[in-house]
Amino acid sequence: MKNAPFFKTILILFTGGVFWASCEKLLDTEPITDRVVPPQDEQILKTVEDAQGAMKSIYAIFGNEFWQFDYFYLGDGGSDVAYAGADVPEFFQIDEYRINATNYVVARDWRHFSDFVKRCNLLINYIDGVPGLTEVERDEMIGQAALFRALSRFMATQIWGDFPIINTTITSVNSNNFDSLYNDLYPSRKPISDVYDAIIADCETAIAKAPDVTSAPESKYKPSKSAARALLAKVYATKPNPDWAKVIQYCDEVINGGFSLLSNYDHLFDNLHEGNAESIWEVNGEGQSSLINSWCTNVFLGTNWKKFNTPSHTLNNALDSKRKTSTIKRFPTTFADPYWTSFTQFPHPWKMRATDGTQNFYILRLADIILLKAEALARTGDLAGAMALVNQVRSRVSLPAVGAVASEDEAIHVILQERFLELAFEGHRWYDLKRTGKSIEILSQQTYSVYDPNTQTFLEVPMSYIGNLTPNDLVWPIPQDVLDNNPNLVQNPGY
User: Fold this and answer.
1) Within a domain: 254
2) What is the pTM of this model?
3) Cβ contact 115:478 at 8 Å
4) Domain membership flag for residue 449
5) Is 253 helix (H, G, I), strand (E, B) or coil?
C-alpha cells in the first residue's frame, strides 16, 4: 500500500479568478496535520491574483452545504427549536438522536471541515512568498484566513469532540515521499483541549492582523478584529474548564466596540438593513452571479417540496409577539406533517426570507454576545448584572423586565430561555445547550402536539425516542468511510 503507484501530484487550478483544488480520491480523506512536511518544490501562490483567488476560495466556504444548511439544521432541528421537517431519513436520525456512522450528512460535513481548513492553510502557508502584496494586505489576508480556520475548528470540535489539527499543506504525494508523509495523510484526532489551544491562537492572530470594522456595512462581511474577539468569547465559554474572566473581557471589548442593538427587531432579518449596527460578522448573499449564492432560504421556505426545520410547538408557544412575527411565518403549503396538520396555516422559519439568493445571515451579532456575557456574569456570581443584560435584550422587543433570581442555576435557565427566543433559527440552540450542560435535561423533556379530532385541540405527547439521551448522543460519530480509510482514527463512544 505504501508504495502504491497511483499517488499523483495534486493539481492547483485557478478558474474564473476563484481558487479550486483537485486531488485524487484518496487525498479526500485526511491529508494534512501539524507535522512538518518536507519542503515543497515550488511556491504555489505566485502572484497577487493567485493570493486573491485563494482568499476568494476561503470566502466561498459560506456558500457550502454546511454553512448554507447543515449549520442551521443541526443548531435548530437538532434542538427544541424545530422538528426535522421534509422527508429525508438521515435528517430524521439527527432530529431524533438515533444517528449512525453511515449517515451521509455526517460524512459530507467531515469532508467539508477538512476542506475548509485546507483552503485556509494554503493561504497562510504561502502568502509570505507572494510578490507585489503590501505588508498590510498580507497581514489582513492572514488574519482573515486564521479566523476562518478558527471558526471551522470551533464548529468541528463541538460536533465531533477530538479532531485533527491541520496546519500544513501537502502539494504532492508520490511513491518517493509517501512513507515520510504517511502520518500526515492519515492523522489521528487531537484532544479537545489541544484543538481549543489552536483555535485561540488563530483568534489571537486575527485580532493582531485582521481588518477593523468600520462604518461601512461591507466591513461586517469580513472576518475582523471584532469578530475574532466575539468568537474568542464563545471559545472561552465553551472550552473544557471555561475561563469566565476571559469571556467577560472579550464580550466587553465587543460591546464597547461601536456596536448597538437595532431598535426594530425585524430589521435584523428583512434583508434591507445589511451590515447594520448590531451585526458583527455576517454572510453576504448577493445572488447567482456572486461568490456566495444564499440558496439556503429555499430549503426552509416555499411550497414546491417538503421543507426543513419546521418550527416546534414549544417555540411557537413561547415566542413573544414582536419576535414571533419575525421568526415564524404561516402560509399555505402543499404538505403537512405529524406535528402541524393545517395546510393553509403551516408555519415556516422566517428569519431568512429572500429566495433569490441574496439573503444575508449572521455568524455573530451583538445580542448573542450580550447574552453570553450575562451567562459569564451568572457563572461568576453577579446574578443582578446578568439579569440586567437579559433585560437590555428584552427591552428592545418591549418585554417586561425579569426579576431577581436566587441562584446561578436559575439565572442560567433565564438566560437560556432568552437565547432560545432571541436567536431561534440562527443556528445556536444545540450548541448553547451543550455549552451549558443542559442538553439532556431539556431535550429529554421535549413533546410534540398531536391534533385530537374529538376535543378539537392539540395534545402534548412526549417524544419517547429521545427520552434516554446520554452524553454519547451529544457528539456525532466519525464517518464510517473515513474510519475505513484511516487506521489512525478511533470511533466516538456509543457508535
Assistant:
1) yes
2) 0.88
3) no
4) no
5) helix
